[in-house]
User: What shape does this take?
Amino acid sequence: MNSRPLESEMPALLPGPPPGSILIVDDLPDKLLVLQTVLEDLGQNLVFARSGREALREVLQREFAVILLDVNMPDIDGLETARLIRSYKRSAHTPIIFITAYADEMQTSRGYSLGAVDYILSPVVPEVLRSKVKVFVELYAMQQRAREQAEERVAFAAEQAARRAAEENSRRSAFLAQASRVLGGSLDLDIATRELMQLLVPDTAALAVLSLDDEQGRQRSCLIHQAHTGRAPVERAYQDLPGPLQQLFQRARADERRVDATHLQPAATDVTTGWWPGLDADTPAAAVPLMVGGKTLGCLLVAGPTDAAPLGGPSFPALEELAGRAAIAFENARLYRSLQNEIVERREAEAQLHEVNRRKDEFLAMLSHELRNPLAPIRNAIEVIRRVAPPDAKIDWARDVMDRQVRHLTRLVEELLDVARINQGKIALHKEAVELGSVIAHAVETVRPAIEARHHTLELSLPEQPAWLQADFSRLSQIIANLLNNAAKYTEDGGRIELIASVADGQARLTVRDNGIGIDPRLLPRVFDLFQQGEQTLDRSQGGLGVGLTLVQRLVELHQGRVEAHSAGTGKGSEFRVFMPCLSVIEPATSHAATELEGPKQGCRVLIVDDNQDAADSVAAVLALDGHEVKTVGDGSLALASAPVYVPQVVLLDIGLPGLNGYEVARRLRQMAPTRDALLIALTGYGQREDREIAMQAGFDVHLVKPASPTEVGRIIDEWQQQGARAVAGDADAAQKLQRS
Assistant: This one.
């Protein structure tokens, strides 16, 4: 016999709870066997222990319906064991039946004092023992059933409470979501406020009061919505709040939190107004400030909600969140209104400025034309004096003075007229291929008298090879002359002026540098503005109207270029840089300039677009040997900028370019008049059928896979020339024959 529990397979006495456990404690195995035989018919779990210690261990591990305890045991007797069992919380009320061969009155009294429910003398009568144990087993089963039912009721109540809370939260969330949609549906403040009030009354509250402040924090208006049975809510607007509300809102503002209140009936003097009838003294109400970022926009009050109101009954737990969303919506509406006002004011200012500029341009144009009328006869009169006047030193001096001043006045008038024409969009460039060195020589010759008059030293640095630009010769010369004249004007006598010209990356760069008075840092950002000049002395020794640099900037922009001004400060000289796209740089090995400009008689103008400079140069060298005029650029933007100027007949275009890829460049070239009918050859590392189809859709005529042979490229160009550019561009079959995988 051991202490391991013996599980009975008989059915339980009562349906419902599982079988209980019976602890049998006796040090004699024979008695344990007898008790097992007597009690196993009860269908309960019988657990056996042969000592008090084992009994205590079992009590700590499980709960028992009844305990049968022998009084006389060797280590801990039954009475002591019962005392210890009663000291445990789990077994404090477990029924204990003592089994003993002898029981006197003292022992029995002590046993009952320790919690015994009965004494049974051995040898036991099976029916008596079984009957008594059965009573306690059934009592234990009923207790278990009652406990389970209590737990089920508690669980059910908790589930119902959780469901109600979930429904309430869901209803509240739906209400707040609807409020967000309503408040965010319009950026008009008046519409947003009325939408909020209509959302609250009558479905959520019987009364809603909204007070908003103006930009200075003063109460601007008060809007009241009040429910009426069987009628639509009544809306009233007040400039001043009634006394009770005024005090309530002041409390909410001061505390910066929700204030719960009742007794909202108006004062006796206000009853006749009837602005909230039907609300008694116990009507629940709450007021909350509308705040955004610590700024109070106003206050909101709700009163008298229905039982199913989304705001949650008398305590209005969702009111603060609603107020927060409303405050954000109202602030957005205010910001939008302010932005709209600013936009309107800005547009009005821009319209006024545009009108002022238009009148200024018209005045300049009229002034320039009117001033030119007297200049012509004055110049003619000077020429007559030169021819007919007798030789006389004073007459010659006076004639030279008049001639210089007339020329100066003529230049000023021309500058004014040019600026007016550019502003009105009336100036047109007559572009042609011009050589940069020739333009510089012409400009230098124009300003040489002004430079020599002040004894300046002019240093020129030109490219080693001729460089060609698509430009208006006279206007480009005017740009350079104006910069040189500006340098001469603002450089002290005997100063140094440098003119440096260079070509790189498809751009011509002109730099005019002097060691003159420099440019004040405050003036530098506005140096190209019309009529803008530095501070001048009363004698205005430099002269001018401040239109020269403005004219330079406008003319450079008309040539798709840009101009920059730099200076280290007053007294440290100035530097102006002009950047313009150029056609090409003529290499020494090529033919004369005129021949190169027009291209070889049997060649054509080729534009190579590739960010790999070595690859581009190698193809360019071979094509140049074949008699073609070649230009290389490193990205798509430069290609698009060069195309209208260079007007290529053939474009060799890499697909994988930085920025704009080759497909996009090809599409734009096809939209430009100068390259609409050009031969477009795609260079790519992908040669699948889909890649060819994409290239054809982008506007390419030929698709070549890298590395493309320059000889092959030359052969394709020759075939295209023989067939005719338009025929190849429009004939898909001919283009297909040119494909190379």
